[in-house]
From TrEMBL:
PANTHER family: FANCONI ANEMIA GROUP E PROTEIN. This is FANCE protein. Residues 9-192 form the Fanconi Anaemia group E protein C-terminal domain. Signal peptide: none annotated. One of its GO terms (biological process) is interstrand cross-link repair. InterPro entries: FANCE, Fanconi_anaemia_gr_E_prot_C. GO terms for cellular component: Fanconi anaemia nuclear complex. It comes from the Eukaryota.
Length: 193
């Protein structure tokens, strides 16, 4: 485990993850492993954290058909507490690309936005959601972002408002979309004209 705190090239780290079978290890071990990761000094590089996010969580999260176990949720939240940016780039991007309903993945994204992610990572999630075609499945994620009432950079807020304006005809009968627009107008009333 001490190897993790030293610079490893990407194939070495991926090889180590494969050797340790991290993508399929039992979830209680996953929680302990994440605790060890958080204690490492120096911190993992962005690239190493992204590789570990993929190896530890990607398969598990994308295969969810019911709410994550308490062990998986504990591992996810502990990893997010320190490495939320690489986590979002790997996991949120993958969840957004998933075809179909992805109900459990959507709930998980909402929970992470509401309870775990730092403000800069919440902004990253928002920009990631706005980069894919908007669907009914993603409206709760946007609602969770707005629920945080974070100050958004003007460009990101403009992008959000523009996206909602462009998508309005497609969601003319959606109550969720109407609630989302109302939330934007309420939270950012001083910035939206």
């Amino acid at each position: 485990l001490s190897l993790m705190s030293h610079p490893l090239c990407h194939p070495q780290l991926e090889g180590l993850c494969s050797f340790l079978q991290l993508s399929t290890c039992p979830e209680p071990f996953l929680v302990r492993f994440c605790s060890w990761l958080l204690a490492l000094t120096p911190d993992l590089s962005y690239t190493s954290a992204a590789i570990l996010a993929e190896q530890l969580f990607l398969r598990r999260v994308l295969s969810l058909t019911q709410p994550p176990s308490r062990h998986l949720m504990a591992a996810l939240t502990s990893f997010c507490s320190k490495y939320s940016h690489p986590f979002c780039h790997v996991l949120v991007a993958a969840m957004l690309q998933e075809p179909g309903e992805g109900a459990e993945q959507t709930k998980l994204m909402c929970e992470l936005v509401e309870e775990c992610l730092e403000p800069h990572s919440v902004q990253l999630v928002l920009s990631q959601v706005l980069e894919v075609p908007l669907s009914e499945r993603l409206l709760p994620v946007l609602q969770a972002v707005l629920g945080r009432q974070e100050v958004l950079p003007p460009k990101l807020l403009d992008f959000l408002v523009l996206t909602l304006c462009q998508q309005a005809p497609a969601f003319a009968t959606s109550l969720s979309f109407a609630k989302l627009v109302t939330a934007v107008l309420t939270v950012y009333q001083s910035q939206v004209s």
